[in-house]
Amino acid sequence: MSLNAEMRRLRDLDWRELDIKEAGIWPWSLQLLLCLVLLGVTFFAMHWYLAGPAKEQLDQVRAEEPRLIRDYRSKAAQAANLEAMREQMGVLEARMDTLREMLPSGAEIPALIDDITETALDNQLTIDYIRLRGTAAREHYVEQPFDIQVRGDYHRIAAFLAGVAGLPRIVTLHDMTLAPEGGDGQNLRLSMLARTYSYRQREEGGS
């Protein structure tokens, strides 16, 4: 059958009388058109059902791409500097160990008091008292305050303070009061609060 004859059949076709049950005797051009429409609908449905979520996921991955590239570059730079960072970490740990050694443990507090007493006696000072107070726990260390009162002339007291500051253990001096002792004004009385510190982790580990 020629194409012109088929087109005439389509023009003369009464669309209202079409019955799906008689689709086998419909004009072949109509059958072809319906097949194309059905194929298009099927393709669209498959694309919407299968390709749609995949495209959405692809868009999300593309949106994350700049951040992933930045993370990669940052980690690559860290990896390139890893050896230098390890060396710096080793230096910092060594410095931390040195500082920790300057913090007396609880068992070393009496020895520190003895060192302060010896420093006062070496400078020919009279010791009224060196009296411990209660400890105060901080986040990373334990604070041990103690009161000191000594008597002597100005230069010997100054030498005593310098000697305490030069001890191998950390001692900080606070609330210093210097008052004349006697009527001649030569001797002075020094009252002050001193503090030393213990590394808390070492204290807890050693208990």
Automatic annotation (TrEMBL):
Do you know which InterPro entries this protein is assigned to?
A: PilO, Transl_elong_EF1B/ribsomal_bS6
Which UniProt keywords are given for this protein, alphabetically ordered? Membrane, Transmembrane, Transmembrane helix
Its GO biological process annotations read: type IV pilus assembly; type IV pilus-dependent motility
The record, for Pfam families, names:
PilO
Record flagged with keyword Transport: no
What's the domain of life for this entry? Bacteria
Q: Where are the transmembrane segments?
A: 25-50
Q: What is this protein called?
A: Type 4a pilus biogenesis protein PilO
Supply the source organism's classification: Bacteria, Pseudomonadati, Pseudomonadota, Gammaproteobacteria, Oceanospirillales
